[in-house]
Every structure is written in C-alpha cells, then in structure tokens.
Amino acid sequence: MKIAIVGTGYVGLVSGACFAEMGADVTCIDVDKRKIEMLSSGQIPIYEPGLEELVVRNVADGRLRFSTELGECLDDVEIVFSAVGTPPDEDGSADLRYVLEVAREFGRKINRYTLLVTKSTVPVGTAQKVKEAVNEELATRGVEVEFDVASNPEFLKEGDAIDDFMKPDRVVVGVESERARQLMERLYKPFMMNNYRMIFTDVASAEMIKYAANSMLATRISFMNDIANLCEIVGADVNMVRKGIGADVRIGSKFLYAGCGYGGSCFPKDVKALIRTAEQKGYRMQVLEAVEAVNERQKGILFEKFVREFDGEVAGRCVAMWGLSFKPETDDMREAPSLVLIERLLAAGCRVRVFDPIAMDEARRRLGDSVEYCESKYEALEGADALMIVTEWKQFRLPNWIRVAEAMKGGVVIDGRNIYERHEVEAVGLKYLRIG
C-alpha cells in the first residue's frame, strides 16, 4: 500500500517510519529542504528512542523516502496524511494555516480518487474547512475528482512513541464513506493482528476525541497538584492520598502524580484550543479554565519554595537544576516548567547551573548564555545553594547523596517530581522539600 505523509515533525516522522516498518510504501513530504536532505542521509532532527534505527532501516530497504514535493507521488498513493503543525495562535486557538495549505496543494494536484487524512490535532469542524479548500482548488482547475476527507488523531507519548504506534491501545478514525473506512482498515490491519482496536466514528467526533483525551489527562494532573498544595497546608501526604484514591477502580492510578506542572506540545496547546473553540461557540469550559490556571501557577511552585526557604534573600544565590525537557526521554522543551522556573530565578538575581541528558542543545537554542551549562549532574552542583529536580530522568533516580552534599555550597534539595525518599536525602545532612 502506498501512502504519503505531509510534515516530518514528531507525528509525521514517527508515523511514516512505523507504517514503513509494517510494510507500507511511504513518502514523507516537507517544505524544509534542509530537513529532507538530513533525513535522506539518515540524520534525525528530533530525539525519540528507537526512531533513528527505524528510519535508517526502512530507508535502506526502500520502503521510506523523503521529498519536498507532494505532487511527485500523488498519482501513486492511495492515502495522504496531513501531519503538519497546528501551533497556538495569539488567543490560544489552533492555527490552521498549514493544514489548509496541505488541503489546497492536495486539491491542486490530485487526478484520481485519494483519501486525505488529517493526523494533526485540529479543532472540531476542521474537516469541513479542509474539504472546502480542496473543492475550491478543484473548481479553479475546472475538474471533478473524487476524494474523501478523514480524521485520524494520534495518541503518541513522547519517549514511548514507537511502542505506542506499533501497539496502540486504540486507533480512532473519523470517516464519511465506506470506501474511506475500508482504506483505513486495510492500512491499520497489520497493527490489529492480536487485538482489534479500531474505533470508527464520524469526523467531528474523531476530532473531539483527541482534545477530550488530552484535556482529561491534563485535568487529572492539575487536580492532583491542587490536592498536593492543600496537603502541605493541612499536613497530609499527597503520595499516600494518591495511593488511596488510585486504588479505586473507577479512578485508577495513572496521571495522579503531583509535580511542578505539565508542559510539552500537546496538553497546554490542546487545553487552550478547546477552551477557545468553546468560546467561539458561546460556551465556557470552566473546568478546563481552572486546569490551565492551576498548571500555570504550579510551574512556579519550586521557585516559591526556594524563596520561602531562604526568607526571600535569594539574589546572588546559585541554583543547580536537574532536567530541562518537559518530560524524560525527549528533548522537547515546549511549555516546559523549567523555562518558567529559570525565568523567575534569573529575574530574582540568581545564578542557574543546568544539566539535562538530552535537551542541552535545545536549551542553548532557547536560553542562550543566560544559564551555565554543565557536563554532568554532579558538575551542576558545584557551588549551588539549592538543587531543583525538574524532570524525572532515570539517571537522576539514584544519586550518590554523599557526593551531592559534598559538591553543594548549601544543603537544600527541592524535588519537583517527588522521586526521592526523605530519609535518604536527609541522612547526609541535606534538607528535602517536595510537592505535597
């Protein structure tokens, strides 16, 4: 089966590599010539465990190729996936300019029946706009060509994307025709051999499912962060609370971990976009407005603890920071709590020494020389009054606490992910602060 994927960002590249691994003939399209040249030579512009190996193998086997021109492959493919970016606009709504440009290019170039599938996260109603854009281009050409529009939202977790794609817990597809349904079913059949997990819906419902899923997960995170802050006030332990409520089968234990806020490319953007979609229809998403507000407040929680610990006397102090990416196993720093924290520390006159196993280059791109970049987690501690753990990378899980205490000037550890045991940290004379 031959398919094309427009957009070689995180979603497009992972999707293309995984479809190729299952035997599909895949052409990935991007307007960025430099990126296409990199990919064609085996260089991967993003970090995702296992992705480079997958891309290199399938390029070598001839199932995966890269191009800057959609028109070069349109006469051969049965399905075109649109996986371009939908960045938040100034008001938080999703910017659809790239999605609609793909639709227009599709309309300018198709000559026979082809299925156009939106894989980007888009607001409800986007499929209709895509269809209109295609029809406008066909009308301009003065031709009639059959096509269908479908929605196939992705549910990939950065750091586990390959496994998520190859062994999905569900594949959601919104279609308008039986022909489109059969094409999508045939494409995904190799992924369904052990357990059929395809959910077919109308297109609008598929578009909504993606936003609703991410918003629910974000809600659980903000809920637990709110509970954690109340736990500190009343003397309860949020870890015990989490275990107690997570044992309820109606609730479950996932996404109930308190921390210093969520970030990344999905949750912040999708929560904002769903709020704006509702506003445009004259409705307020009051729960999600609170979710967003709690999360923005939570990103400053480590700074607040730091200031309280030093009685407001923080100017000139040195802070070591372990972790910069919004989560482990990625170099993604979009909406990362570390960015808010660093901004506040610098504004307060602090020196900041940072280390992240993967995201250092991305940090340099975003932060320039405003912070000090270190070669290891222990180097970051030299002369530090406080250590802040912002991302729960595995290599941070079992530090040598004696070495930590010896390297630091001060003795305060502020754990933004609650990954340590208090008695282990305090046994070497360090003071341990955590969330909740």
Query: What's the count of strands?
Result: 14
Strand order of the largest sheet: 3-2-1-4-5-6
Broad structural category: alpha/beta
Q: Determine the CATH topology of the largest domain.
A: Rossmann fold
Roughly what percent helix?
40-55%
For the record, what CATH class of the largest domain applies?
Alpha Beta
Instruction: Based on Cα principal axes, name the global outline.
Output: elongated
Q: Examine the secondary-structure arrangement and name the CATH architecture of the largest domain.
A: 3-Layer(aba) Sandwich
Distance between the termini: 52 Å
Number of domains: 3
Given as residue ranges, the uncertain stretches (5+ residues, pLDDT < 50) are none
Q: Compute the gyration radius: what is it?
A: 24 Å
- Taken as a percent bin, the fraction of beta residues is 5-15%
Q: What would your notes on this structure say?
A:
The structure is a single chain. The protein has 436 residues and is α/β, with parallel strands linked by helices. The chain has helices at residues 10-21, 33-40, 51-60, 97-109, 126-141, 161-166, 178-188, 203-234, 238-246, 267-280, 286-298, 301-309, 337-347, 360-367, 401-407, 422-426, and strands at residues 2-6, 25-29, 64-67, 79-82, 114-118, 147-151, 171-174, 198-201, 318-322, 351-355, 372-373, 386-389, 412-415, 431-434. The chain has three domains: 2-200, 3-Layer(aba) Sandwich (Rossmann fold), CATH 3.40.50; 211-297, Rossmann fold, CATH 3.40.50; 299-434, 3-Layer(aba) Sandwich (Rossmann fold), CATH 3.40.50. It has 16 helices and 14 strands. The protein has a six-stranded parallel sheet with strand order 3-2-1-4-5-6, with helices on both faces. The chain has a six-stranded parallel sheet with strand order 11-10-9-12-13-14. Strand 4, helix 4 and strand 5 (114-118) form a beta-alpha-beta unit.
